[in-house]
Amino acid sequence: MSVYRDKRSPYYQFDFQHEGHRFHGSTKCTSRRDAEKFEAAELEKAKALVKATRRAKTSLAIDDVAGRLWNDSAQYDAEPKATETNLARLIGYFGQSKQLTDIDHKAAKDMVAWRRGQRVSRRGKRTKEQEEALPLVSNATVNRSATKVLQRLFAFAKAERAMFENEPDWEALLLPEPLERVRELQDSEAAALDEAMRDDYEAFFALVGASGMRLKECVTLRWTEVNFGTRQIVRTGKGGRRVVFPITPAVHEILFPLQGQHPEFCFTYVAVYGNKRLGRVRGQRYPLTYTGAKTAWQRIRANSGVADFRFHDFRHDFGTKLLRDSGNLKLVQKALNHRDIKSTLRYAHVLDEDVAVAVERLAKSRKKSRSKIRDAS
Length: 377
What we know:
Layout (H helix, E strand, L loop, with lengths): L2 E3 L6 E7 L2 E6 L5 H25 L5 H11 L7 H15 L10 H12 L11 H6 L5 H21 L10 H4 L13 H10 L5 H10 L3 H5 L6 E2 L4 E5 L5 E5 L2 H7 L12 E3 L14 E3 L2 H15 L8 H14 L2 H7 L5 H4 L7 H25 L1
Antiparallel strand pairs: 1-2, 2-3, 4-5, 5-6, 7-8
C-alpha cells in the first residue's frame, strides 16, 4: 500500500488490492500523512465490503441491492409507486455506487437530517417563494420514506447473507411521532355525509362504515373474495397478511344487491363524462379506483360541510364505536386486523367511563364493608 501524487491533480491518490479486488481513487488530501490516513481508512472499508460481499455473493452497491429488492418483493407492495420513489430518493442521495457497508450510523443520521429539511411536494407549478412557504415533511414521513426504507435495504442484504459490522442503530434514527388522533363521527355529521352522498358510491361508503376495512381493501374487493355461504370476506390485507371480515347481516344487505353489476369487482361507479382515450362511455358502470374513490370522498366531504374528518377516520369511528359497545379490546383488535394490540390501545379512551363506574363501585363496596365491621364492634 502506498499513496502517490498524480501530476494532473493537486491531491494524493490511493491504489491497493485486497483479496483480488482493486480499490483506487483520490484521497482529496494534499499532504502525504493525511493521504496515508485516508488510505488506511479506505482499507478498513474495503475489508468490510469484501467480507460482506463474499458472504452475500453479490453486489452491495445501494442501486444493485434496491434493484434486487424491487424484483423480489418491493414491486408487489400495496403502493409500489411510493416504494419506487423512496428507493430512488435514497439512491440519488447516496449515489448509485455507494456500498451499504459504507453507510454507518453517522451516514444514516446525515441522511435523516437531509430528508427532514425537505418540504412536502405539491402538484403544479409554483414560484420559489411559494415552494419555500410549503411545510417541512413530518417526522412520520421521514421515518416511513427514508429511515425504514434504508433499514429494509439492509434487512434484504442480510437475508442474502451479507454481514454488516457498522450497521446504523435504527431505533435511535427514528424520529418521534405524535400519537395518531382518533376521530369519531357524530350523528349530525353522519347525516350530513348521507345527504351529500353520490348514489353510485352509497354502497361503497356503507361498507367502509360497517366493516372498518381500509380504503384499498374496499376499493379492490372482488367477488371471488366474498363468500355468502361461509359469511366471510377473505382477502390479502396490509403487509400481505390474510385477513378475514365477517359478513354480518348489515354487510350482507350492502353487498348482495350489487351482484351482476360487474363480473369481477364488487364496487362500481357510473361515468359522469365519456373519455375516448380511456374507453369510458358516459352513463356506463366501471370498477372503482383508489384515486377515483379519494377524489369522490373529497367532494362528498366538501359538499357535506363536515370538517377535520379524513377517509381513514371511518376506520377510527368503527373501532371506537365497537369498543364502546363491546368493552373488549381483543375483539376490536381482531375486527380491525391489528397485528399488535398496541395499535388498538389508541381507542382505549372510550373505556374511561366504564373504568370510572368500576372504581366507584369498588369504593362503595369497601365503604359498606367498613360499616359492617364498625357495626359488629
